[in-house]
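Treating backbone geometry as a discrete language has practical consequences that deserve illustration. Part of our work consisted of pairing the sequence of a single chain with a tokenised description of its backbone. What the numbers capture is local backbone geometry rather than side-chain detail. For completeness, the protein is quoted in full, as a sequence line and a line of structure tokens:
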Amino acid sequence: MHSDRAAGSLIAALDIGGTKIAGALVDASGRLLVRALRPTPAKQDGETVMRAVGEVLGELRLDGGWRRVVAVGIGSAGPVDASRGTVSPVNVPGWRDFPLVERVARAADALPVVLTGDGVAMTAAEHWLGAARGYDNALCMVVSTGVGGGLVLGGALLPGPTGNAGHIGHISVDLDGDSCPCGSRGCVERLASGPNIVRRALENGWVPAGGAEPTAAAVAQSARAGDPVALASFDRAAQALAAGIAATATLVEVRVVVIGGGVAGAGDVLFGPLRAHLARYATLSFAAGIEVVPALLGTDAGLVGAAAAAAQALGLAEFSPEFALEG
């Protein structure tokens, strides 16, 4: 499709969330050469949100590197529908079935545009340059305000037809559990997300140390200090994550699980009980012994991953580093 493109091609990446709209020009080694950023006017109408996206793109277009851009990759908060090119982010109510791909293509010189969900974008980034590099089969997860994820199978990102494959946060792990906002019951997200870790701790009598704000980080701090209620809330979150991971590994035989997002910042308070529970849930020979590791790319994962997902979808070999095969 772009066989005549010059060496040194770039991909314009957009990372769209409820708080910020970030953009960058990304080179074939995954470096972010030029950045642009706007706050997301999440409470405004859809056209106002699109104007902020247009401003980010406009800033990128002013850079001399824009002439080397061969595609635009978008990682967006979901739900997204890559098959239709639309987005309906839960925390951006002005966008419901918003035709983002069409609008971005119009603002970006009719370049090819590839849309994917933010969990899948993070997965693409961690497989390209992060903690899943060198693995042909991986599950990557974001544990934050929500719980999202994505899959790498057979050495390739598996976004699924709509760009949402691997959305582990809405596997049900508690059959008669609390109702989830998604409409189901007992979802991983309902047990393991940051706000739900806080909710459970507060319901059981936890009080933040020193009058701090009740956040997942504050619960983690109390857990490190030995608070039994805080420890129990993280243990329950870890159990839910372990059950979801074990189900995924049983279905598709992943060898590594990469966990990022704010809740992963709890460190051993999360990873310790998670590994212990996982050993009890993932017992079949082909699912046992999964490595669980923290993500490496942090807040840049969305931009790096949007570029990586676009490169794979469009077959841009220049952006496809060699991955070592699994042992």
